[in-house]
Amino acid sequence: MIQTLAIFEGFGLGLRKEHYADFDQRDVPVDFVEVISENFMLSGGRPLHTLDAMRARYPVALHGVSMSIGCAEGLNQDYLIALKALAKRVDPLWVSDHLCWTGTGGFNTHDLLPMPYTHAALDIVCDNIMHAQDVLERPLLFENPSSYIAFPNADMTEWDFLAAMCERTNCYLLLDVNNIYVSGMNHGFDPVDFLDAIPAERVRQIHLAGHSAGHTLLIDTHDAPVCDAVWRLYAEACQRVGPVATMIERDDEIPPLDALLAELDVARASAHSASVKA
Amino acid sequence: MHPHALQQEFCKRILDTVTPDPKIFGPDAEARVGIYRNAYRARLMSCLRSNYEKTWSWIGDDAFDTATRQHCILNPPQSWTLDDYGTGFNETLGSLFKEDPEVAELAHLEWAMQRAFGSVDEAVIDVATVQAFVAAHDGLDHMRMAVVQSLFIFPIRTNCAAIWQDIADDNPPSPPSLLEAPAYLRVWRKGFSPHFRTIDADEVTALNALAQGESFGDICSYFTATSDAERAIVKAGTMLGHWLGDELISTLV
Question: Three-state DSSP class for A108?
């Protein structure tokens, strides 16, 4: 029986190695940190020592990129066992990954590839989530990835898919507001429609990030500050979701820690304003 | 189209340059699939640059990128972790740089250090423990030892180790050269940092013997076959000193 997951209110950062020294030497004003699970799914060595030290001072969320929950061939059992071992070591706030698949037939692209939003795909995803939650003995969070392809044979919207997925598996959502915006611009939907339709009570974490403009599409680079449009969408999300964990996620062009902390202050102020309005 | 068939089709289009079918991937399929295709290639190249930083520095951007392109085409990733991507890259380099054997050996060294970096944590034996064994057993002859799991040994015939060290120290790299005699590199993790040491064939024989469960006395016997007893004991003792100082022995068995 998969248990429920309590709400954790707080503001955090994705921990990147560029900031290890800062976290080691300063009292960084965050309520939690999020780490990329795969970076610590090792047999031993310095990374795990660093994570243990971090965990002694901050709550930690585990965020994965390789579960491949949408893979039609099922999940990699070795991966799940390694992730379970890490979760046992860390005792995280929660374990999350993405609504995507990463490869098939023994080939792994190491990318977050888009799901076809079909009934058949929903069955596959739900079966995989139930299996992963059983193995890990905890409810999981799944993040909406940015996408550049909308398959013509879709039976439903992304938000309907997410809602059905949550209802059938009791999983939770990690809402990446930047990804909603990027996908909305790339596929021509209103991001607010997305926010209106998802099961807000299942959201346990929000990601905020930046993106880049490609030739004709927005590219989810996570290498820039959060833009104004995403901040506005975040305020809309806060009004619907209420107080949950929010995090700035920067994966490339990592700035000094204080720049990210300044962005986190903007998130705090925006969430506070939204709570007053609500 | 069933999701499984669609996923297989998507993977094919990432790996090749065939125009994606708009009936499957929607309008503007070439540009949209192209984003995933480009991201895939960029990610693998970035991974190899990160795992083989000094080899990249040694051969330069153009040669390294050519090698990574060939490696990525011939070796699509299979593991769930990108940490594994890079296995066999030294062999790819070996096939491309037949006249420059130091390139593949430098890459082999970097890869072994990467593997040692993330290997399992183990307690190690110190001198005091060995002294206690000697006191309890009236000597070292019957002492059997297990080495740490981070240990990698491979043969070299070039000065790849010197080149690695020069690049690490930001010194002008030594010109490539062949060693006067073939040797071996021993790579392992000491504390949290990977280390390496150039060793000779006798030490490889001794370490292999340890792995086979043979005793320190057996190792001394190997050396007495090729030199006098006093030299053999000194040689084995010196090796043992290095192993203990290098934190290479995990247990006495």
Answer: strand
